[in-house]
UniProtKB/TrEMBL annotation:
Sequence ranges assigned to domain Ketoreductase in this UniProt record: 7-183
Regions that span the bilayer: none
UniProt organism field: Podospora didyma
PANTHER family documented for this protein: BENZIL REDUCTASE, BENZIL REDUCTASE ((S)-BENZOIN FORMING) IRC24
Swiss-Prot/TrEMBL keywords: NADP, Oxidoreductase
Family assignment from sequence similarity: Belongs to the short-chain dehydrogenases/reductases (SDR) family.
Cited SMART domains: PKS_KR
GO function term, MF aspect, one: oxidoreductase activity, acting on NAD(P)H, oxygen as acceptor
InterPro entries assigned to the protein according to its UniProt record, in alphabetical order: KR_dom, NAD(P)-bd_dom_sf, Sc_DH/Rdtase_CS, SDR_fam
Coiled coil: none
Name of this protein: NAD(P)-binding protein
PROSITE patterns with a match to the protein in the record: ADH_SHORT
Keyword Oxidoreductase recorded: yes
A Pfam family: adh_short
Amino acid sequence: MAPSDKKVIIVTGASRGIGLTIAEYLVKASHNVVLVSRSEGQLKELKAQFPSQIAHLVADMTSSDTASKVANLAVKTFGKIDGVAINHGIVTPMTRIENSSIDEWKALYDVNFFSALALVKETIPHLRASKGKFIITSSGAASHAYSSWGAYGSSKAAINSLVQHIAVEEPEIVTVALDPGRTDTDMQKEIREQGAPGNAMTEADYANFKAAFENGQLNRPEWPGHVIAKLTLGAKSEFSGKCLKWNGPEFVELGSSGYLKSS
């Protein structure tokens, strides 16, 4: 690959799960990647394997200066930004609204929405210049309510709306919300551990999530992860402003049809 063909992609939540598979796909495809996570272990391992292709930052995305640090690191190291995969997020607190804490909701929104917004705002000028891509991980919970998921689901609905607004305001940037389906990550484990009926999920919904894991029906992280990685490199303009399922008909050419159907 010629140096001019290499893309520079920022990936958040990059130390595990879907984020790690996005990063691995991109570096193995010879692109340059800026990785951001609260933990360093996997970032250091990837850096050791691909020293010239990776810059990484261990940081809390909710810190007020993280977005600018990430953008500056990308430009200082690689000279440009071609894509941003915003993949970090949390699902807790899992509490019915009547028993919830407004401060806990605000903390979740800081992670799932406002830190994403901050990174978008900081990198818009760079993506406008490169005619780049924002790919933001959403969730089916944005449009399907589960008891005790009010904070998480509404934050993802806000993400979907944000994607629509970026698409309207920045027509040179392709902006997509991507629903990864139920994926075998630490978040699913947290749902099984903390979503038990009572103050959390209904018995039927909890049983459904638990059975999906026990019956091997969860997506492997690399399935949606590889689709996201490919979208950061070449998402079509007609996708902009939409929330799409990772294995939807739009992505047959990206190889998603070769995976098991998401639940």
